[in-house]
TrEMBL record:
This is undecaprenyl-diphosphate phosphatase. Residues 60-168 form the Phosphatidic acid phosphatase type 2/haloperoxidase domain. InterPro entries: PAP2/HPO, PAP2/HPO_sf, UPP_Pase. It catalyses: di-trans,octa-cis-undecaprenyl diphosphate + H2O = di-trans,octa-cis-undecaprenyl phosphate + phosphate + H(+). GO terms for molecular function: undecaprenyl-diphosphatase activity. Keywords: Hydrolase, Membrane, Transmembrane, Transmembrane helix. The chain crosses the membrane at residues 20-47, 59-82, 102-122, 129-151, 157-179. The gene is ybjG. It comes from Serratia aquatilis. Its EC number is 3.6.1.27. CDD domains: PAP2_BcrC_like. It is an enzyme of class 3 (hydrolase).
Length: 201
């Protein structure tokens, strides 16, 4: 597996001959595209057609559960099974400043693949496909820039699938209670903007 990791990394990683425009795009993708997660979470929870809001909020609740599970799992794996980043051992070319912590699984990859798989499973196919394209772009960019190995991203994808499965099982058992508590908390915390009509009830 390590040989495959090195081979794929050498194929994807940027070099001094890579176009500067492609490197700039990769930096944008690696650092900024992940913002789609909080933007969609906030947008789909606060706004939408009245008859679709309960379904939207269920998607957001399940996705958040999956994200919490996967990020805790990723942190645990990184702590128990540390794996050095390419630049930490002098492999390839690095074009993005990053602390030399454990690389596997990628936190960015885990988060965005969890999000994409969640929307494929619980929202709409087109939105899931769009998010999967964004996820693949982020995964590519972080390998291209030299801060991750390809298998770090594969690990994030697999962990995202496990996280979505966990969230669905938990929702099957306690979904009604979770939804009711979240709704009460939302109405309490956002009573003023709800009354003003800034966000939906």
């Amino acid at each position: 597996m390590e040989q495959l990791n090195y081979l794929l990394f050498a194929w994807i990683n940027a070099s001094p001959a890579s176009p500067q425009g492609l490197i700039s795009f990769a930096i944008f993708a690696a650092k900024d595209l992940i913002a789609v997660i909080p933007i969609l979470i906030v947008s789909l929870w606060f706004w939408g057609p009245r008859d679709q809001l309960p379904a939207q909020r269920e998607v957001i609740a399940k996705t958040t559960i999956a994200l919490l599970f996967t990020m805790v799992a990723a942190a645990t794996i990184s702590m128990l099974l540390p794996h050095e980043r390419p630049f930490s051992i002098g492999v390839g070319h690095n074009y993005l400043a990053h602390v030399p912590d454990s690389s596997f699984p990628s936190n960015h990859g885990t988060a965005i693949f969890t999000f994409a798989l969640a929307f494929l499973s619980w929202h709409r196919v087109w939105s899931g496909i769009l998010l999967m394209i964004i996820a693949i772009t982020i995964a590519w960019s972080r390998v291209f820039l030299g801060v991750h190995w390809p298998l770090d991203m594969v690990g994030g994808f697999l962990l995202g699938g496990v996280g979505c499965l966990f969230a669905q099982l938990l929702w099957n058992l306690f979904g009604y209670a979770i939804a009711a508590k979240l709704t009460r908390l939302y109405h309490f915390l956002f009573a003023f903007p709800i009354r003003k009509g800034w966000v939906q009830e």
